[in-house]
Amino acid sequence: MKRILTPVVLSIALALCVASPAALAKSKQKASPEQKAAVKKCNDDYNAAIKEAKGKKGKEHSAAVAAAKKSHKECLATAHK
Predict the structure, then answer these.
(1) In the prediction, which pLDDT does 19 show?
(2) Which of 2, 7, 14, 29 is 20 to 30 Å from 47 at the Cα level?
(3) Separation of alpha carbons 57 and 59, rounded Å
(4) What is the Cα–Cα distance from 78 to 73, expressed in whole angstroms?
């Protein structure tokens, strides 16, 4: 009985392990046109800020780049909601 039960239990456990990620995965939603436009605007603003920061030197440059990255991250977070 033990010879029969062990492979069956192992097979069921393996099947559950393989099937569980597919069952728990979220379906990806397509971005709406408004979201796409918001992300594009965020990226354009970020690229403009980086171009502007390239003209600066030293601490001003690093501060401008950090501010651009922070605002870009915040903008993308609000755009995806």
Answers:
(1) 62
(2) 29
(3) 7
(4) 9
Is residue 22 over pLDDT 70? no
Rounded to 5°, angle at Cα 49 from 48 and 54: 100
User: One-letter amino acid identity for 73?
Assistant: K
pTM to 2 decimal places: 0.60
Residues 6 or more apart in contact with residue 45 via CB below 8 angstroms: 71, 72, 75
Q: Report in angstroms the alpha-carbon separations of 79 from 31, 60, 64.
A: 10, 28, 22
The dihedral over CA atoms of 17, 19, 22, 25, expressed in degrees to the nearest 10, equals -50
pLDDT of residue 1: 74
Each as own residue / partner, the long-range contacts of residues 58-62 (CB below 8 Å, 24 or more positions apart, any chain) are none
**Whose CA is closest to 49, among 68, 66, 63, 62?**
68
